[in-house]
Design brief:
The complex is a heterodimer of chains A (about 325) and B (about 350). Chain A is mostly helical and about 325 residues long. Chain A has 15 helices and four strands. Chain A is globular and about 70 Å long. Chain B has one domain: ABC transporter involved in vitamin B12 uptake, BtuC, CATH 1.10.3470. A two-stranded antiparallel sheet of chain B has the order 1-2. In chain B, helix 3 packs parallel to helix 14, helix 4 crosses helix 10 and helix 6 packs across helix 7. Chain B starts with a helix and ends with a helix. The relative contact order of chain B is 0.19. The chains are: A mainly alpha (about 325), B mainly alpha (about 350). The interface between A and B is large, with 48 and 48 residues.
Chain lengths: ~325, ~350
C-alpha cells in the first residue's frame, strides 16, 4: 500500500513541476528558460527545502508534531555566527578558516536549539506546537536582542560569496549540497534503525511504546535533526545574501509547511518521503519565479500560498479514483 | 520537582502537603499568571518606585483591550481542542474594509451598527475557518495558517495598502469617550477609555457561555474527548464551526476597537501579534490539547503579557529583549502545566 501511494504522489509532483515549467514557457517565453534563471532558482531552493525537511521530520513523528521554530533558529544561527566568528578568525587573512568557524558556530547554535526543542518535546512531554511556538519566540527574541534589531553585514568574502551564489559545473554549490543532504536524509530514514523507528512511532505511538521503541529518545533526535537542518539553512542564507537579520523570511513558516503538505507528508504522522519534498520545493520555487517574471505583487503571492495550502489539504481528502471511468478506476485501485 | 514526579506509595505523608498544592493549582490554573503578575510588579516596583502609578495601571488596562478580545476567542477555540492563528488577519480585514466602507459610503453610520457589522463580518470569516477544519480534517493550526495568508493577501492585493487617518466621526468620538478620569499628583489627566467596557462585557459573556450554557459544556466536552462527546450526542462539527465563528466575531470587534483607539486604519497593523495572544492564553492555564481553560486565567495572562511588554523598560531592560522574554514565559508556562498534568495523573 505504501509504495503504491508514494508512486502516485511522485508522479503527481513531477506532473506539477512539468506543468509549471510549461506554463512559464507559454507566459514568459525564452527568458524564463535561460540557464541563468534556473541557476538563480537553484540557489533559492535549498534554504526552503531544508526548513521543509525539518517540518517533515516533525510531522512524521506524529502526535501533532510540527516544527515552527525553523526559520527563527536559522536566523539566530546566522546572527550568532556573524557576531562571534570575526573575533576568532580574520575573514581577510584566512577566508577558509573564517568560513569553517562561521559554519561551526552556526551548527553549534543549531545543536543547542535542537537540544532544547528535543528536550522540551521528548523528555518534558510538551506539545510540539507550544514548545516550538515558544522556542520560535525565544530564538527570534535572542536574535533581536543580540543585534538590537538591525541587519548584520557579512561583507564581501569571495569564498563565502562563491559558495552562496556561484555555480560549479553549472550547478549552484548550495543546491548540490542540498541534494547531498537530501540523499543522506533519505538513506537515514530508509535504512537506519532510527528511521524505521521514527515511522513506526508516527503511525502508532502506543504500539511503538509497547514494542520497546524508546519514544523519548527518538523524539529528541528528530527535533535535534530538524534544528540542525535549519542551521544549515542559516549558513546558506548568510552566504547567499551576505547578511543576516532576525526577521529574514517571515513567511517561511507557512512556505515550509506548504511544501511538506504539497509533498503528501501526513500532518497526523507516519508518512513522508524526501524525494517528494524536494520536488515540491522545486515546483514552488519555479512558480514563485514565474510570479516574479509576471511582476505579480508579493501580497498576492502570500494569498496564493495560503490558498494553495488549503487546496493541497483538500487534495489529500478527495479520492479522485471514484470520479474516474471504471476502466481507469481499476488500475487506480490496484495501485492504492 | 523531579522528586515529586513518581512518589513512592508509602512515602506520601511528608510530601502530601506539596502534592495537594500541585493538585489544587491544577484545579485553579489562574494562580500561575497571578503569581507571576505579583512577582513582576514587586520586582519592578522595588527597582523603580515610579511604577506605582495609576497612569501605569490605566495604560496596561487600555493596552489589554485588543489583545484581551483576541485572547477570549483563542481561549474558546483552545477549549474545543483547536487552534486559531488567523484572528489577526480577520481583524485587519474587517477593520480596514469596514472603515473604508463607512468613510466612503456611509459616513453617517453610528458606532452601534458599526460594531454589529464588524461582529457579523468577523463571525462569517471565522466560520470559514471552522468549515475548512471540518471538511479538510487537517490540524486547525495548518488550516488557519493557510486562511491567515489568504485573508491577509486578499486584503493587501485587492482592497488596499494605504493607511488613512480620516476615520469616521462616530468611531473617532467613541475612541475619545472616557470612563474614568483622574488628575494625578503631577497635575496630568489620567484617563481610562470607555472602550475598555467592551472587553469587560466580552469577558462576562464568554464566562457565562462557557460555564452556564449547553454550548459551553459542549465546547469543553468536544475539546476533552471528541470521540466520547460525539457518542454522547454532541454535534462535534457544529461546535467547531461555532467556536471559530465566535473567535472571528471577537476578532472583528477587536479590529474596529483598534482603529478607534489609534484613530487610523493601517492594513499592515496587528499582523504578527498572534503569538503574544496565544502566549497569554497558554499562560492563563488553557491546554493546547483542549478541554480546559478559564476566562479569569486568560484575562490574567493577557495582563501579564501586557505588563511585561510595557514596563520592562522601567527596570532598564531594553525593549529589544521583549520577544525573548515572551518566548521564555511560554516555555515556562508550558513546562509548568505539562509537569502538573503528570503529577496529577500519577
Amino acid at each position: 500500500m505504501r509504495s503504491g501511494k508514494t508512486d502516485g504522489q511522485l508522479v503527481f509532483l513531477i506532473g506539477i513541476n512539468a506543468l509549471v515549467v510549461i506554463a512559464a514557457m507559454i507566459l514568459v517565453g525564452d527568458r524564463f528558460m535561460a540557464l541563468y534563471n534556473f541557476q538563480s532558482m537553484g540557489t533559492q531552493v535549498p534554504e526552503l527545502g531544508l526548513l521543509a525537511f525539518g517540518v517533515m521530520l516533525a510531522m512524521i513523528s506524529g502526535n501533532g508534531g510540527i516544527d515552527l521554530s525553523g526559520i527563527a533558529l536559522a536566523n539566530l544561527s546566522g546572527v550568532a555566527a556573524i557576531l562571534l566568528a570575526p573575533s576568532l578568525v580574520s575573514p581577510d587573512a584566512a577566508p577558509l578558516g573564517y568560513f569553517l568557524t562561521f559554519s561551526a558556530i552556526a551548527l553549534s547554535v543549531g545543536m543547542l536549539g535542537g537540544a532544547l526543542n528535543g528536550a522540551l518535546i521528548g523528555y518534558a512531554g510538551m506539545t510540539p506546537i507550544i514548545a516550538t511556538l515558544g522556542t520560535q519566540l525565544l530564538f527570534t527574541g535572542v536574535a533581536v536582542g543580540l543585534t538590537g534589531g538591525s541587519a548584520q553585514q557579512l561583507g564581501y568574502v569571495p569564498l563565502i560569496d562563491d559558495f552562496g551564489n556561484m555555480p560549479i559545473w553549472g550547478v549552484p554549490r548550495t543546491f548540490a549540497l542540498f541534494i547531498l543532504i537530501a540523499l543522506a536524509l533519505a538513506a537515514l530514514l530508509k535504512f537506519t534503525r532510527f528511521g524505521i523507528h521514527l515511522f513506526l512511532m508516527g503511525s502508532n505511538p502506543t504500539a511503538a511504546r509497547f514494542a520497546g521503541i524508546r519514544v523519548k529518545s527518538i523524539l529528541f533526535r528528530t527535533y535535534l535533526l530538524a534544528s540542525l537542518l535549519a542551521s544549515v539553512a542559516g549558513i546558506i542564507i548568510a552566504a547567499r545574501t551576505s547578511s543576516v537579520k532576525w526577521d529574514y523570511g517571515s513567511s517561511y513558516v507557512l512556505v515550509a509547511i506548504l511544501i511538506t503538505v504539497m509533498a503528501g507528508v501526513r500532518p497526523e504522522g507516519g508518512y513522508g518521503r524526501v524525494i517528494c519534498v524536494v520536488l515540491s520545493a522545486t515546483a514552488l520555487q519555479i512558480l514563485s519565479s514565474l510570479f516574479n517574471f509576471m511582476q505579480i505583487s508579493n501580497f498576492f503571492r502570500d494569498c496564493a500560498w495560503g490558498l494553495l495550502l488549503l487546496l493541497f489539504l483538500a487534495n489529500a481528502r478527495v479520492h479522485w479514483g471514484t470520479y474516474l471511468p471504471p476502466v481507469l478506476r481499476r488500475t487506480d485501485r490496484a495501485r492504492s | 520537582m523531579t522528586s515529586v514526579q513518581n512518589p513512592p506509595s508509602d512515602a506520601v505523608a511528608p510530601r502530601g502537603g506539596l502534592r495537594n498544592l500541585w493538585v489544587w493549582s491544577a484545579r485553579h490554573p489562574a494562580i500561575f499568571p497571578f503569581a507571576l503578575i505579583v512577582l513582576t510588579c514587586v520586582v519592578i516596583g522595588t527597582i523603580n518606585p515610579d511604577f506605582w502609578q495609576l497612569a501605569n495601571l490605566f495604560d496596561i488596562l487600555r493596552a489589554s483591550v485588543v489583545r484581551g478580545l483576541f485572547a477570549l476567542g483563542v481561549l474558546v477555540v483552545l477549549a474545543s481542542g483547536g487552534l486559531d492563528v488567523s484572528f489577526t488577519a480577520i481583524a485587519a480585514f474587517v477593520m480596514y474594509t469596514l472603515t473604508l466602507f463607512v468613510v466612503n459610503a456611509a459616513p453617517w453610520l453610528g458606532m452601534a451598527p458599526i460594531l454589529v457589522i464588524a461582529a457579523v463580518a468577523g463571525a462569517l470569516l471565522g466560520s470559514v475557518n471552522g468549515l475548512l477544519v471540518n471538511v479538510l480534517r487537517a490540524p486547525a493550526l495548518i488550516v488557519t495558517i493557510g486562511t491567515q495568508y489568504a485573508f491577509r493577501g486578499f486584503l493587501l492585493t485587492f482592497i488596499g495598502t494605504a493607511l488613512f487617518m480620516n476615520i469616521p466621526a462616530s468611531m473617532d468620538a467613541f475612541g475619545r469617550l472616557t470612563l474614568v478620569k483622574v488628575i494625578s499628583d503631577q497635575g496630568l489627566a489620567v484617563e481610562l477609555p470607555a472602550y475598555f467596557l467592551v472587553l469587560v462585557a466580552a469577558a462576562l459573556v464568554t464566562w457565562w457561555m462557557l460555564n452556564r450554557t449547553l454550548i459551553g459544556r459542549a465546547i469543553y466536552a468536544v475539546g476533552g474527548k471528541p470521540d466520547v462527546a460525539a457518542r454522547l450526542g454532541y454535534r462535534v462539527e457544529r461546535v467547531r464551526v461555532f467556536v471559530f465563528a465566535y473567535a472571528g466575531l471577537l476578532a472583528g470587534l477587536a479590529g474596529v476597537l483598534h482603529v478607534t483607539a489609534n484613530r487610523l486604519a493601517n492594513p499592515f497593523d496587528l499582523a504578527g501579534t498572534e503569538l503574544a495572544v496565544i502566549a497569554a492564553v497558554v499562560l492563563g492555564g488553557a491546554r493546547i490539547t483542549g478541554g480546559s481553560g478559564t476566562v479569569l486565567g486568560t484575562m490574567l495572562g493577557v495582563i501579564l503579557i501586557t505588563l511585561v511588554s510595557s514596563v520592562l523598560i522601567l527596570v532598564g531592560i531594553p525593549s529589544s529583549w521583549q520577544t525573548a522574554i515572551l518566548g521564555g514565559f511560554i516555555l515556562i508556562a508550558g513546562l509548568f502545566f505539562a509537569q502538573l498534568d503528570r503529577i496529577v495523573e500519577s
